Amino acid sequence: MHKCGLKIGDLESRYPLIQGGMGVGISLSGLAGAVAAAGGIGIISTAQIGYREEDYDSNPLQANLRAIGKEIRKAREIANGGIVGVNIMVATQHYEEYVKEACRQGADIIISGAGLPVSLPGVAQGAKLAPIISSAKAAMVICKMWDRKYHRVPDLVVIEGPKAGGHLGFSREELDTYTDKSYDDEILKIFEVVKSFEKKYEVSIPIAIAGGIYNKEKADHYFEMGADAIQVATRFVTTEECDAPFEYKNSYLKAKKEDIVIVKSPVGMPGRAIKNKFMADCMAGNPPKPGRCHQCITTCNRATMPYCITDALVNAARGNVDEALLFCGAEAWRAEKIQTVQQVMDEFFPE
Is the pLDDT of residue 77 over 80? Predict the structure, then answer.
């Protein structure tokens, strides 16, 4: 069973649940604010967060930076004093500017993956810092680097497993070979790495586990293993408060187990998504031509990109689901109905 609440330094949430960041436009102020108000930790995804701003096409960076402040302020109004943070991908162009802006706007915590956030402590002021890692090797690299260069350790570590949604920190081969049991073994190795740095700094470094946690049974399994918290994303897509349009939520409700597949994202990482017309077109060699550049990912090479991932994800956020990349976690097919955030929280923590 879980220990009540989650303490991250001087931050404390009522429940040990972090809502995972989902971009583009799926976890914004509506979802993050509702989760924070319900006693969890609400996370806004900064990925192309300004896609609704008037100058987004002509000036994506400024549009995105402006929207970070807007969304944090809106989430705070809903959160009723709860904890609100942001997820910023390391692979984001102008990553450090996003981090500085989130700190300026008062984010409580910055969660950062899609690459190793080795420079994060050098640019973040005032927020708690949490790297997302998927292996003991990555945990060691981050902890050693932060220790040596910044004389500090993470405030929280998020371990994201192979059943997560969106971009994944694994090779295709690893995704095909990991079992629940073999990944649990990897989790225990990560615990050991984190504990060694806890000891060195004489601090507590809570660990959250993410990826495929859809119900209380799975959550309890990780709490029994020693996790301090769970990070849950997919489960919150089919909530009333989620910022996604109904068409996006409905694609989860309609998805069958065999519709959830691993795709090769244009940014060079494997990802998990729902099979749809867009994906069928891409697999048939007819992807949509990339349009205007949105300055999203550092690894983007326009000459070799099969399609623009921002366009595909913005289409999802606008409800144009046939022309969209529909990222999801491995258990998305389990979704049967639209619930409230409170109902989801009550299922995870009935007591």
Answer: yes
Q: In this structure, what token pair is assigned to residue 78? A: 């809903």
207-248 pLDDT tens trace: 999 999 999 999 999 999 999 999 999 999 999 999 999 999
pLDDT tens-digit series, residues 24-60: 999 999 999 999 999 999 999 999 999 999 999 999 9
| Token representation of residue 283 | 């697999």
Distance CA(54)–CA(70), nearest Å, equals 14
Q: Which two tokens stand for residue 186?
A: 């990897």
320-333 residue pLDDT tens: 999 999 999 999 99
In angstroms, rounded to a whole number, what is the distance separating the alpha carbons of residues 239 and 235? 8
pLDDT of residue 304: 64
**What is the pTM for the complete model shown?**
0.96
Distance CA 178, CA 169 (A): 13
Residue located via tokens 């420079």: 119
Strands 128-133 and 83-87: unpaired
Whether the CB-CB separation of 235 and 219 falls below 8 Å is answered with no
One DSSP character per residue, 281-300 reads HHHTT-PPPP-S----BTT-
H or E segment and range at residue 224? helix 216-225
Cα separation, 103 vs 86, in Å, equals: 10
CA distance 102 to 88: 9
24 burial (CB, 10 Å; 0-12 / 13-18 / 19+) is buried
Any idea which architecture 6-244+334-348 has in CATH?
Alpha-Beta Barrel (3.20)
- The structure tokens listed for 278 are 């867009």
Q: Report, in this order, helix, strand and coil percent for the chain, each rounded to 5.
A: 40, 15, 45
Residues in Cβ contact with 178 at an 8 Å cutoff, skipping those fewer than 6 apart: 161, 162, 170, 186
Where does CATH 3.20.20.70 sit in the chain?
A: 6-244+334-348
**Tens digits of residue pLDDT in 253-277:** 999 999 999 988 877 789 999 999 9
DSSP run (H or E) holding 317? helix 309-317
